[in-house]
Amino acid sequence: MRMYDIIEKKRNGQALTTEEINYFIDGYTNGNIPDYQASALLMAIYFQDMTDDERAQITKAMVESGDQIDLSEIDGIKVDKHSTGGVGDTTTLILAPLVASLGVPVAKMSGRGLGHTGGTIDKLEAVPGFHVEITNDEFIELVNKNKVAVVGQSGNLTPADKKLYGLRDVTATVNSIPLIASSIMSKKIASGADAIVLDVKTGAGAFMKELNDAKALAKAMVTIGNKVGRNTMAVISDMSQPLGNAIGNALEINEAIDTLQGKGPKDLTELCLTLGSQMVVLAEKAETLEEARAKLQENLHNGKALNQFKTFLSSQGGDATVVDQPHLLPQASFKVDLPAKKGGTVAEIIADDIGTAAMMLGAGRATKESEIDLAVGLVLHKKIGDKVEAGESLLTIHSNSENVDEVKEKLYASITISEEIIDAPTLIYDTVT
Ligand code: URA
Ligand code: CA
Predict the structure, then answer these.
(1) What angle do CA 241, 166, 69 make, to 5 degrees?
(2) Interface ipTM
(3) Is there a catalytic annotation at residue 187?
(4) Ligand 1 pocket, 184 CB below 6 A?
(5) Candidate from 83, 180, 191, 196 with most ligand 1 atoms within 8 A of CB, to mutate
(6) pLDDT in tens, 329-373
(7) How far apart are CA 169 and CA 164, in angstroms?
């Protein structure tokens, strides 16, 4: 087999065979195929697309390029949830203990944040003592005992994807549905879950800004998952404005605590119930979505979800007293309000710009090496569609430096107040199965 012929075949719009795809992925991962030939094939895929079979095959080949996590020692159907990334997306912190409280095993592999979106591990580390440095055996033991544990990403998961992503990043081939879908799904599948619930975001703060692109990506990922034998579904949700009210690590732990007591922001609670119901049904802990939702709601109000969160935190070294006394979480030295310059209705809170403002405060990493400040961030008091009076606080800035002029300027530029009547944006656009 020659890489030249594979490039030419795809360039001419033909579908590659399983053998050809495996030849490319194996050869590129082990260094036998040079970057220039891989780049040419990626560009051909960008223009010619891939069939459903090719997409499933390249995903499988990437999964098999490295370690695969074996979760078979965990009892029950393991359901994973993945979000394509957003600002103030606190859902994992809530969903993990919430669905675990219904007996769904949650074996979560998570990452750290980069750029304007936060990572679940960073957020959890705002709880004093909490750590994800546990062995695979401990991880499995904890899930069997408590139904929920979180571990950091293993070193050698999908090396083919790591290498290809790096190449796509410098060859203008990131933005391709078959390449994005196979990249995301390879990591999910290698992480070992039996079933996968995807939260595909759309809007200003999302990777897929347009609804149609988000739908195409969701459909592509669901098809790959089901083709490789993992029960997969997707929810398409709004990321035009940040999710919930809190953006920042300790602030989002606080928001998760509120939500786990049934006192959380409406949008965040609704998205958690939507995604959670799907997870519970896939895990066969309820027959219908309605039944699952009722059970989840019950556990938000009877203390079971909150207790599950406490057990989870302390089982990984965290100080669970923060749940009843959130003031023990890291606190910023300065709390500065952002008053509305005029009255009206909030028309826009551009999610990625708000994420960037939180990053400027130190809540997120500009580069992989940046240190983050767990205490800082933003708490919104108004969301799109809310009425506001001139001088009323739009949000509170939690900062560890006194001068927040630049952040304020960024925030004012990303929030629009209109004289017109504006509706709150749709939260859930679609469900793809
Ligand atoms: N996230 C991924 O993991 N892969 C992509 O290709 C794009 C976003
Ligand atoms: Ca939030």
Answers:
(1) 85
(2) 0.94
(3) yes
(4) yes
(5) 180
(6) 999 999 999 999 999 999 999 999 999 999 999 998 888 888 899
(7) 8
